[in-house]
Amino acid sequence: MLSLTSERRTPWHAIAAGPKMLVLLAATLGAFWIEGVGPILGFAATVAALYMPGGLVFARAGARMLAPVVPFVVVILAWHWWTGALAQGVVIVLRMVALIALANLVTMTTRLQDMLDRVDAALALLRLPQAWRRRLALAVALVIRFTPVLVQKGAALSQSWRARSRRRPGWRLVLPFALVAIDDAERVAEALRARSGEL
After folding, report:
1. Dihedral (C-alpha) 82, 83, 87, 93: value to the nearest 10 degrees?
2. What is the DSSP code string of 102-154?
3. Among 95-104, 109-118, 175-184, where is mean pLDDT lowest?
4. Does residue 58 contact residue 8 with C-beta atoms inside 8 Å?
5. Spatial CB neighbours of 107, under 8 Å, sequence gap ≥ 6
6. Which of 87, 95, 101, 90 lies closest to 30 in space, CA to CA?
7. Contact 102, 27 (CB under 8 A)
8. Contact, 109 vs 13, CB < 8 A?
């Protein structure tokens, strides 16, 4: 559970974590300056092309990780269609999906420990005590790792509800989702204590 790194090797696996995280940061900042359906579509196509060196299996795995985003895409497009600003909605959706896909690509091709080391090195510039840096770096790395995991589990809970009831789940999934998150947090904490004695 601590690793979402793909076992299928790609050229991106050989690139160090630092450059990949910097590119992700720069792309995230730059994407918000891209306006117009054409340019943002080109950006999304470029991100999609980055999956191709890993083959169709790797690309499909990346596409599956985007499945939980579909409900948000539908809501955003429906709202902007209703308000008569569909083009703006398409830009927002393409930007969101492209950036999530790019973050997933970094996650799929980078070991957790490598990300942890890079974040720790960046925090060293703040001259914080080493113990604090390691904890902050671990927190950042775990957020990056577990965000897609929790999104997938939330989608699975929603699908399970729909399979058993015609009513919309809404707030009823808050408690089971919270319990899933707490259970995962406890398991991770136990694994970290067993491996490093920390936490």
Report:
1. -70
2. HHHHHHHTS-HHHHHHHHHHHHHTTT--HHHHHHHHHHHHHHHHHHHHHHHHH
3. 175-184
4. yes
5. 4, 5, 144, 145, 148
6. 95
7. yes
8. yes
Tens digits of residue pLDDT in 118-141? 777 777 777 767 777 777 767 766
d(CA 71, CA 50): 24
pTM score of the predicted model: 0.67
| Cα–Cα dist 169/161, whole Å | 6
Structure tokens at 165: 């009831």
Contact between residue 165 and residue 147 where contact means Cβ atoms under 8 Å apart: no
Structure tokens at 191: 């694994």
In angstroms, the CA 190 to CA 182 distance is 12
**Identity of residue 154:** G
Q: Which residues contact 56 (CB under 8 A, 6 or more apart)?
A: none
CA distance 105 to 102: 5
